[in-house]
Amino acid sequence: MKELTIYTDGACSGNPGPGGWGAIMIYGSFRKEISGGCKDTTNNRMELTAAISALEALKEPCIVQLYTDSAYLCRAFNEDWLERWKANNWRTAAKKPVENQELWQRLIELTNVHQVSFHKVKGHSDNENNNRCDKLARDAIKALDNT
User: Among all residues, which ones are annotated catalytic?
Assistant: First the structure.
């Protein structure tokens, strides 16, 4: 399987409010940037949408190192939150319905196709690719104003 690196980020102007997401896919010397937005959303939804969109863009099963500044995304996969949510019929430890369930379910489907490792990076720091994803996400929000 091909091995590649993906960076993702989501942003929201107000929470909820207009939101955007950005992703960079890197395979060898090949680099592709994608982004999008939504007029009424949350930051967490945009973080998840960035990861979903990048994984959906892959044409075949791949080994993916996915870097994000979203603790929400990383912890759900790396600390077995998803397994507990599923075992509890999509309820949190506080017995509340899990937010963004349909997005989590889509991510689970995609991680069954691809071998994905989730890595947390510090946001708004010195990570060039994370900063670029943040710019893509913010530019996607601005583009919503022009539609």
Answer: 9-10, 47, 69, 124, 134
DSSP state string for 57-111: T-SS-EEEEEEES-HHHHHHHHT-HHHHHHHTTSB-TTSPBPTTHHHHHHHHHHH
From the list 6, 21, 26, the residue with the least C-alpha distance to 136 is 21
> Is there a contact between 116 and 66 (Cβ–Cβ < 8 Å)?
yes
Q: 127: helix, coil or strand? A: coil
Distances (CA, A) of 20 to 53, 67, 76, 143: 12, 17, 21, 9
Model confidence, pTM: 0.95
Put residue 17 in one of left, alpha, beta given phi > 0 → left and psi -120 to 50 → alpha: left
Q: How confident is the model at residue 124, as a pLDDT?
A: 75
Instruction: Please give the Cα distance from 14 to 35 (Å, whole number).
Output: 19
Closest C-alpha to 21, from 50, 52, 54, 55 = 50
- Residue keyed to tokens 């017995």: 95
- pLDDT tens, position by position, 35-94: 999 999 999 999 999 999 999 999 999 999 999 999 999 999 999 999 999 999 999 989
